[in-house]
Amino acid sequence: MKRRSSFFAGLALALLGCVSSLSYGQGYLKASGRIITDEKGNKVILRGMGLGGWMLQEGYMFRLSNIGQQHKIKAKIQEVTDSAYTAKFYNQWLANNTRKIDIDSMRSWGFNSIRLPMHYNLYTLAVDQEPVAGKNTWLEKGFAMTDSLLNWCKANHMYLILDLHATPGGQGNDLNISDRDPAKPSLWDSQANQDKMIALWRKLAERYANEPYIGGYDIINEPNWGFESADDKRGTNETKNEPLRKLMVDITKAIREVDQKHIIIIEGNGFGNNYKGIFPLWDKNMVISFHKYGNFNKQSAIQGFLDISEKNNVPLWMGESGENSNTWFTEAISLVESHDIGWSWWQLKKIGINNPLEIKLTPSYQKLLDYWSDKGPKPTKAEAIAALDEFLNNIKLENNIYHKDVTDAMFRQVRTNTAVPFKKVVIGDNTTINAVDYDLGSQRTAYFDKDTASYMYTPGVKTQGNRGRAYRNDGVDIQRDDSGYHVFNIEDGEWLQYTVEVTKKGNYTAKFNVATDSAAGQISLTVDNTASAGNIAFTNDDASKNWHLAELKNVQLKKGINRIRVYAEKGGFNLKSIQFIKE
């Protein structure tokens, strides 16, 4: 399972061959009618990744939903350590979380752009911290980090899109998104905060005006605010959005004073999707961003944005999406690319399986989580520092768990409906296959599961995808156990495919390591779509769920490549492994 950096560099030469030549631009990007082009007029489909959690931590990314905003996380760390260690922790966090190896790896997987979620406090002081009211103190830290990231992107011929994720004062009622402190004036309650935001964008544009690998300026992330009604906490019902439009017009004016070249990307209210009152557009080089999470991947889900694009003759960009299963990823990317819409996924790494890189959850860090959620004792200062130091090491790419199934779903599976081996398996006289190592591929190609994605924003739909949230991000339900992983929650009619190489033609006995959840289960098997050796029924009369072997004899395998499918004729059992023994 620990597929680390030695694998990364070599993985995606094949992936890159699958990526359209239209993906990689030359020179400054620009809005050309309803598409984005490079300086030579070639269409560019942005295929990007957001670096969530680097400059701005959101609690859920690190199992800290009960704490929430970054400034609260920082206070919790200081409470179990001290102020000096906390400052050191955050400096090391910024150094370790995203490095050149991360950008190199993303390029090798097929990405051609990066979206940088910026926290304003790395670039300038908060309004209430300024020594002179109304003045702006510029901090080199954020600019230097952005410079380094841009250089890594340049080296990989990738575009960098700057995204102001946390604005001065905070732009919404979802506090985590912008690290907002509700005890202080919001962006919308303070002209000083708005002036600082405008000045920051002018400063950024002045610094990067002549950088062609800056793909654009995403000037405000996911505003969610009730301007007409304070009860409209999400901003989804606003009909005018006058303060939002005015601020974006003012920011654009400040940018254009120093930079006439770069695309300006705007987002509506209601987490980027409510554009009522925003039009007409005020600049000729603009892109409309929308964010898509947890709804169905049908044209009707994006039709409103397609209508906006057509009416205003402006390109669209799906500036944020993800946080779902591989099935959903493939479908969403296929949908938007069919309309020449680029995308940026959220996010590269966190604790969890539905991103390319997973940060490992260790026992020492879990003890901190238990304390912070009132489920365990307070660690000593030494224990807390040791746990946090280990965590800082684990956020490095080489210590992450790489989920190749995620990147496969985002690139290869968008372009071909074929399955390939998840791991190379050679069947000799006695070979065991882990059940969780079924083929890489889409639903109904590599596997069939009745529950393959989450539609959390669709009323009445309660599907989840992988209910165990372990090992892989497909629809197959996988649980961790004492010796690894197993497939569970198997329902009638579900199946798994394994592409294997067989060294000797002949008959084999297949031994299935199973544990029944109910009185009985039944398995059948096909080889290259041909039924083989009937099926096997098994019971566990005491319903103890202990692992035991169920045998199916006379399974005929040919020498060379065989595609074996294991069918659950009757579900209600768990599957750990399949052993093939030459008869």
TrEMBL record:
PROSITE patterns: CBM6, PROKAR_LIPOPROTEIN. It comes from the Bacteria. Keywords: Glycosidase, Hydrolase, Signal. It holds the Pfam family CBM_6. InterPro entries: CBM6, Cellulose-bd_IV, Galactose-bd-like_sf, GH, Glyco_hydro_5, Glycosyl_hydrolase_5. Residues 431-581 form the CBM6 domain. Belongs to the glycosyl hydrolase 5 (cellulase A) family. This is Cellulase family glycosylhydrolase. It comes from Mucilaginibacter jinjuensis.
